[in-house]
Description:
Blueprint: H1 2-23, E1 24-27, E2 31-37, E3 40-41, E4 49-52, E5 58-64, E6 68-78, E7 84-95, H2 98-103, H3 108-126, H4 129-134, H5 136-151, E8 156-167, H6 170-212, H7 215-229, H8 242-257
Amino acid sequence: MVQELVIAVVAAASVCGLYAAAAAKIVKQYERGVVLRLGRLREDVRGPGFTMVIPGVERLRKVNMQIVTMPVPAQDGITRDNVTVRVDAVIYFKVVDAASAVIQVEDYRFAVSQMAQTSLRSIIGKSDLDDLLSNREKLNQGLELMIDSPAVGWGVQIDRVEIKDVSLPETMKRSMARQAEADRERRARVINADAELQASKKLAEAAKEMSTQPAALQLRLLQTVVAVAAEKNSTLVLPFPVELLRFLERAQHSVQQQPMMQPQQPAQPQRSAQPQPQSRPRPQPPSVAPAPAPAPAPVSSPAPAPEPERPPRPKPLARH
């Protein structure tokens, strides 16, 4: 009798232990427990920690409340400007209502994934290629709004959607490379033209300053010679400016005109030779007096020189 009682107690304890093990549940901190009693949803959602359910009557479903990172498979599509592209994305979402995530949708992860793929294809068809490449922030916002609208009723909140990569055909890549090269060449030519314009303005100002002092051009030429000769070159190519030739021509012309501008000086009359006193006059043979050399005529006056006056004959001295 005692043996049967002991067996019954042990059996009851085992049943109680099995019942407690089946009824005891542990909900983690990042989870929430949704209890279904005989298929009906209980209003109270179990929080984190230890909780009990009735085995066979109640069923506990745990829902993860963390942010889920889900990659969206790459989608092929044609943009609005008829370019075939392949776009993939990534979506971040979390459950905010555990009861709705269990009751309203069969599998909220699969539902969000399919909605993200459909919305991504729709965004590709509504956008241009330039928007997919450079204006992704606006497309991300539009994609997030398209996915978040149906997900609100599932108890899911879309936190962020990002377009990861846009794959283009090789022909389109080559075309875009040629376009970028042409654009950069155009900008380079514009920059060079602007530099030439600024340099021409500065050179015009320098030429204006040098025109007031022609010697400045010669000094600048000598500075250029010194700068080139400092590199120890065996051959020196020296440009000869035209302005220097004009400067030398003007200088030579002014030197030629300088005598013409001097005033004409009057011719000075020659002084008559005075006879020297002689003690006794001596007879001299008759001779013809040589004519004096004519005075040189000035360059500026074409008139003939005046004839020189003949000296008077000397008078004999009286004897005392």
